[in-house]
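Objective 1b: paired records.
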Amino acid sequence: MVANTSAEVARGAHIAVRNVSHWFELPGGALQVIADLDLDIQPGEFVALLGPSGCGKSTLLRLVAGLEPATAGSLQHDGQAITDPDPSRIVVFQDPTLFPWRTVWDNVALGLQARGLLKTQRHRVDEALALVGLEGFSKALPHQLSGGMAQRVALARALVNDPGLLVLDEPLGKLDSLTRLAMQTELVNLWQRSGFSVLLVTHDVEEALFMAQRVVVLSDRPARIKQVLVNDLPYPRHRGDPRLAELRHQALSLLGLAESW
């Protein structure tokens, strides 16, 4: 199932993770954080990763984004080896990391500016701001924004590059609960409109199940896939849906928290 339900083919990336293992070299010896992991993200698909803290979720994101190479195995983006970062795979972190002296518009324009494209493609900055609902704040400075607005700027900065894959590392983790719920819906709407693929890391079981089509539950370190939960509920979803409650119970059980439900 992909985000795009029209006749148009989803333009999102196909990511293939094949037999990937990864170690960190520490003073006391090598620490394995991922073990023999296989994962596919289909074009236009929304996939979330759940697992215990420190199990290797964010490390897997870094490997998929090309921020570091895997110790063993292979990762491919549309059939091409992932060896380095690329504008087609954009990471959005928990902290928006906006430059405080640059306006919203100038922060969003950074990617195009760095690639020498800003002069001919300025319109893409305005389009990205419109996508996240911030067209009226282009001249604002970061300190004038709420937390949710700052994170929308970070999303616009990613979208201006027209990515095939959006990699989200706890992007809503620092927001208050009401803003977080609203942003979950906004992110899903943005994904549906744009057609990119998404790989999300979150510690919030309900967030993963509300947003994603598949939720990959990982084991303790080194991360292995324990189970993949498929959420075939149509969008827009309703948080009180009995199917979400059923999936929540499955996820919590896999995470060793069945007694809390």
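Objective 1b, second protein:
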Amino acid sequence: MLIFNCTEAASKFFSRVHKGKTITPVDHQPSSSTVEEDERRDSAEQWLVHAIIVQRKHVLFVIHIQTRYCMIFADAKKADVESFIQRFTNRWIYGLMRHALQHDVLQWVNDEPMMERFEESNRQYMLYRRRHRGAQKHIDDIAWLFEDCAAEWGTLPPDEIAADRFDAQMNDTLRISKGRKDYFSPNEEMMVHWLRAYCGLDEPGIQTARDRSKEVKREIRELESRLHSG
């Protein structure tokens, strides 16, 4: 199941007013008051969603609480949950496949069983009015950078490919979170999470894929360094 924990701003974004009455798909009183209580009980995909307005348009920031993998949805349609879910799912899969292709990880991905597992696990979704302090801090950092970039560009990302490019830059930024001793890459952590949850890979296989990804990343950095120095 997909669980979208919504900030107050995101809750308002997904809600609408009809004849003076607020209609919302967001549950304001979930059975668990914190994400951590849910995590102890089940394996749902927990995301935090925040909404801001940039250049007079709604922008959603969605971050995976476990891995801090983030996606940005510019010019989002207010109170249209179905449109958001479709856009979210497509971007998530596209971003992961792009990263796997660029880092030689596709050899561990079997498309058909993977998508069957993904669709079975994430057919249902819930929206809760619930906060997460650590993930919110990362969203605030990303939102600040996004606003700065949008001002420099003079526009929001014009399509999903441009938005995915910004996602990739943010997810390649090393982060730190409570309970972790070292900095980590959201791109790498989400790749590992995906291989474990949806590709049926065992821990030795996951470590092999992680090592290969890091090796390719080093090769890319070395090539870029040589090109710049030349």
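Helices lie at 8-14, 35-41, 81-102, 111-121, 133-153, 160-171, 186-198, 203-229. Residues 23 and 43 are 29 Å apart (CA to CA).
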